[in-house]
């Protein structure tokens, strides 16, 4: 199990605390320092069953600078979104846990963290 975190994020700290309380074995990836490649982002999206715009923090200043709210959200625009997430990792929703069964969850709630633990 791997968890993508930003240590400054309270949701990330909560997820780590819950993983620790449950005695989970996991690897921490500080994704702002160890930036995911486009291929890794595609893999996580597949595991999540989501599109890149579904995991994009559109309220971030960088998103506004890029004009993401105006970008198309369709198959033709998918790679543009993936590239933006790889180039601007702050835009990636967090935390993301990749579960042992090959799936992943955006673990913003205790329920989502527990869901990942049960997989």
Automatic annotation (TrEMBL):
Protein keywords: Oxidoreductase
GO MF annotations, alphabetized: arsenate reductase (glutaredoxin) activity
* Oxidoreductase found in the keyword field: yes
**Pfam families per the UniProt record, alphabetical:** ArsC (PF03960)
To which protein family does this belong?
Belongs to the ArsC family.
Name of this chain's protein = Arsenate reductase
